[in-house]
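Q: My collaborator sent me two sequences in one message, no labels, and asked for predicted structures for both. Can we handle them in order? The first one she listed is below.
A: Yes, handling them in the order given. First sequence, followed by its structure tokens:
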Amino acid sequence: MTPQKIALNLRPGDKTTFQLQVRQVEDYPVDLYYLMDLSLSMKDDLDNIRNLGTKLAEEMRKLTSNFRLGFGSFVDKNISPFSYTAPRYQTNPCIGYKLFPNCVPSFGFRHLLPLTDRVDSFNEEVRKQRVSRNRDAPEGGFDAVLQAAVCKEKIGWRKDALHLLVFTTDDVPHIALDGKLGGLVQPHDGQCHLNEANEYTVSNQMVRAGDPSP
């Protein structure tokens, strides 16, 4: 980037403009984590991204040969009023829904694929996914974003790489204080809470990322 240093003498309230020239470092490493909403309304979108990894890699390799791709998914907190909590919905929250009667249990966040340069692994992981169902329109994406950011070792973020997080959803996320509607009062501690299966373990215990203390 040039210039590297600029000296200005301005009065309070004055404005000025200047030009910067920025050039991308050649073959700079890039880590891209794809975080996808797997609630029922995203079923068509899931079908459309079966080969997304190949397309992403083709485009990114026009910019760098040092590219890695990861994948994670989210739905929402599996508590009322965000999800269907009656016992009969615990194994299949789509029971009784005529348009799509079978889906997987609801979950907060799942880290499915650490960052890798194997695009075929990304495509394979996406093909294995099935949608779930929550009760309200907003989704629990902010919990997932926080875990993707702070679980650095599990995700595989490289210190010297450009970090990109692609967040895919078709609705607004739940925000601060929403968790209290479900009786959650413990503020989020901002730490990584993924178990050995890479599933978010405190989705139903802590209020949403960014919630203030009660």
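Q: And the one she listed second?
A: Here it is, processed independently of the first:
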Amino acid sequence: MKRTILLITSLVFFLFTACEESDTTPAEGNIFILGGDLVSTNFADNYYWLNGNKRLISMADENFTALNMGVRNSQFYAVGQRFINGSTTITYWNGQFNDIESPTNATANGIYFDGNDIYIQGRISNGQIRTPVYWKNGVRTDLPAPNDGASLIEMVVSNGTVHVVGVSESSSGSMPRTPYYWFNGELEELETNQLVDIYIRDMTLYDGNVYILGDGYDSQNNQQMHILWVNGEANLYPAAGRDQQDFQRASANRLSIDNGDIYFSGNYETSDHSRSYYYKNGSIIMLEIDSNRSTSVSDIEVTNGNVHLIGHESSGLFTTDRTAKYWLNGSSQNVDIADNSFFFRIGIQ
């Protein structure tokens, strides 16, 4: 199951193949990508790709910022905000815009489905405190939060049971952050094994178990760690790239479980380049590329043992010559994109 998040001002991402319209469904299911074409630094035309075919969501002048995607019954949904008559409105798109009654200081960053019900997660900010919220079929529920507020990162709904995960966070986004998990509205602090500067990246359910992915910093040993909580128990994984002389930082991003195998993707940075990798059951698998190039992966989906990664490649860490990329089982695939196209999340159904 996949979820999604797309901040127009910080992306430059990826893709899937094909130039011609086709009704053929891949053996693993339909492949959906959320992305777009940049028209300026902060604005983009929103698109999604279905099995490689590019389809318009909205033009930049429609003032819609797509922040996430979802798929139900092979139908694509995008969720985010629209700027209408001087105010911001939460909305989702599935061929047309569907506005949700919400205050102007609300944001939405996820859409999920349970039967016929549509859930949208987000937050409301009063300038100092962020209140975590979700909407079920347009009706808002405010979740309890620590005194300094919280931001929701991921949500999963199964048979009416609502799982949400996030971090304590003021409107300034200041650290330190504390990770939290909400089960049917009840707030629980996640164990951190004395790590600090925690950030949650993703969550999924598999065989009745709750898997939560995050990052943290081990101040005692001066190293970054990835964290995988399984039913609340923290398991630590050393970040890749720590053996590099000019290692700067690393972060995990997305989680996928396939036939009991646990995968999550990530990137590390040195002073002048970035490298991408994924974990499979605790083992690091590097994405092999030209040593003179940089990569950044933003999503992973694994089906039937096939590893789908999306991200971008560039000549260096701070360069703007970024090329959208799709890797299947470690091999770069041909893509049909414009120079200004980006892709952010992948889902297969």
